[in-house]
Design a protein that fits this description.
The protein has 237 residues and is an alpha/beta fold. The protein has a single domain, classed as Alanine racemase (TIM Barrel, Alpha-Beta Barrel). The chain contains nine helices and eight strands. It has an eight-stranded parallel sheet. Helix 6 runs parallel beside helix 7. The two termini are 31 Å apart. The relative contact order is 0.15. The mean pLDDT is 96. Bound molecules: pyridoxal-5'-phosphate. Pyridoxal-5'-phosphate (PLP) binds next to strand 8 and helix 9.
């Protein structure tokens, strides 16, 4: 049995166990397999095991893989996105997780209109308030969502956050809790063209804690594909 298959099986089992503990339906939690830096062959292994959602954080790599791999894969752009690269992915990826400025939202909308496509997006929130992370502050998110919701051909489906790196994932419980509360607050506003069904939170280190606090989409890389090795580039997180 391959390492990818083993890793995947363990993650899926942990998702089920956690859901059972907190009384949630495991079907509510979408697993996005984060395949950045990993070869197409490893993605095919996960695909063969039934995974259809894959996450990448660089546009070039995402587009290369999209071309070579099965058409029914739902690709997720999870990394910081520059406006000049939106044109390569708009209408082609299932979900852009990392919308963190009005200029970026407006550019996605503009190109979606131009290409006559619709694009689902998430708003990235820096719940932990870390200086090194992208994302809006929790305070500015509601107003931002109200504004961005008016843009044509884009649809806000929820929020995304990356919690700090911690030794014990329990330390991130308050962050995930705050994120869920924020989503509930936004839902109550009943904003046209906005749903808060997707809470994209939880990675290899802390997806269990994230599910406990209401995550509906976990982004798991190294626990499925193994550790990543970087040569010339720092990890974009
Ligand atoms: C790399 C990455 C992940 C996955 O990280 P792992 O620790 O390997 O599970 C999740 N989310 C984002 C935004 C990432 O860049």
């Amino acid at each position: 049995m391959s390492e990818v298959y083993e890793g995947l099986k363990n993650v899926v089992e942990q998702v089920k166990e956690t859901c059972a503990k907190v009384g949630r339906d495991p079907d509510e939690v979408c697993l996005v397999a984060v395949s950045k830096t990993k070869p197409a062959d490893m993605i095919r292994e996960a695909y063969a095991a039934g995974v259809r959602d894959f996450g990448e954080n660089k546009v070039q790599e995402l587009c290369d893989k999209m071309e070579r791999l099965p058409q029914d894969i739902r690709w997720h752009m999870i990394g910081h996105l520059q406006r000049n690269k939106v044109k390569y992915i708009v209408g082609k990826v299932a979900l852009i997780h990392s919308v963190d400025s009005m200029r970026l939202a407006a550019e996605i909308s503009r190109l979606a209109v131009l290409n006559n496509v619709e694009q689902d997006i998430l708003i990235e929130v820096n719940v932990g308030g870390e200086a090194t992370k992208f994302g809006l502050s929790t305070e500015e998110t509601i107003q931002f969502v109200k504004e961005a919701a008016k843009l044509p051909n884009i649809h806000i489906k929820g929020l995304m956050t990356s919690a700090p790196y911690v030794e014990d994932s329990k330390e991130n419980l308050p962050i995930f809790h705050k994120m869920k509360e924020l989503a509930v607050d936004i839902s109550k506003e009943n904003i046209d063209n906005v749903s808060m069904n997707i809470l994209s939170m939880g990675m290899s280190q802390d997806f269990v804690a994230a599910i406990q606090e209401g995550s509906t989409m976990i982004r798991v890389g190294s626990k499925i594909f193994g550790q990543r090795y970087y040569f010339n580039q720092g990890e974009q997180m």
